[in-house]
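Hi V.,

Quick status before I head out on leave. The structure for the redesign project is tokenized and pasted below; the design run finished overnight.
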């Protein structure tokens, strides 16, 4: 099944839900980042959560989620646009932690203390920024906590990442269910009961269920309309002009050091690992060296 997401709204407007299949996307990102098994599960969850929340964006809007925690991974980052183009990175890709009670120790890898940063570029002058303390460091609950407290929309998030015998990502996916303001609250206990009984999302996806079929199961008997279906893919929007712009923002001394010590500059994109090389002549032509 190709990676994609589906967003639905109940016909009475009370409930909104998104489900996503993200196996290829997360596998590509984890391979680029060189993550160890625990880091793969952690980054796979954040990437999937970002894709789900990206389903709520419009037009040219962008969303970035960043987790900074006290654990060995230090910082995880994922970004998406409204068209399902996602990228992600992790500061330290090696958690180096043994499994805990037969599960990958994502909480240990992220660390119990830390923050979830949410940055939305809504096309306004300044991006919208929000930050909450990590709630459980399992990621799904942290995203639900952010949506419920900061955006004030009661939300449940489920994220699943399964690895194969080579520790590459076998299956990944997730869902997001939101109770819309002013909606029919009688539906909430019913949904909560359904969510409790739902098999893990990775099991449903490996059985061949599509994101829409998973939502049909959750919303059985609740009429809904499909609002959107989007293909999800890894895509990095870095470019040589963008990296050149970053170099223009450096101090003159920093640029001089690159010229004298390194005889040029090599800048590697943290997301796609593409390297952009700049010659001494190109560095010498930067505006900050002109004064
Ligand atoms: Zn890139």
């Amino acid at each position: 099944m190709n990676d994609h997401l589906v967003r639905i709204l109940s016909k009475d407007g009370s409930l909104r839900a998104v489900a996503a299949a993200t196996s290829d996307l997360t596998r590509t990102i984890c391979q680029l980042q060189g993550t160890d098994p625990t880091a793969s599960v952690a980054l796979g969850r954040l990437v999937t959560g970002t894709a789900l929340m990206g389903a709520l964006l419009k037009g040219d809007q962008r969303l970035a989620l960043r987790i900074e925690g006290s654990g060995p991974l230090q910082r995880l980052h994922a970004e998406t646009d409204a068209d399902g183009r996602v990228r992600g990175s992790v500061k330290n890709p090696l958690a180096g932690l043994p499994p805990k009670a037969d599960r990958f120790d994502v909480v240990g890898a992220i660390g119990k203390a830390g923050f979830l940063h949410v940055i939305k570029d809504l096309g306004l002058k300044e991006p919208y920024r929000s930050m909450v303390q990590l709630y459980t460091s399992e990621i799904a609950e942290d995203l639900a906590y952010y949506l419920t407290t900061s955006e004030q929309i009661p939300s449940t998030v489920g994220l699943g990442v399964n690895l194969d015998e080579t520790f590459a990502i076998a299956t990944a996916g997730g869902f997001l269910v939101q109770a819309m303001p002013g909606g029919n609250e009688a539906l909430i206990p019913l949904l909560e009961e359904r969510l409790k009984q739902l098999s893990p999302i990775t099991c449903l996806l490996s059985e061949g269920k599509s994101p829409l079929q998973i939502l049909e199961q959750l919303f059985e008997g609740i009429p809904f309309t499909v609002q959107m279906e989007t293909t999800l893919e890894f895509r990095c929007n870095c470019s040589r002009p963008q990296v050149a712009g970053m170099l223009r923002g450096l101090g003159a001394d920093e640029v001089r050091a690159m010229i004298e010590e390194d005889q040029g500059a090599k800048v590697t994109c943290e997301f796609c690992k593409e390297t952009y090389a700049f010659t001494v002549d190109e560095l010498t032509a930067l505006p900050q060296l002109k004064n």
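Above is the designed sequence. The longest helix spans residues 37-54.

G. will cover questions while I'm gone.

Best,
W.
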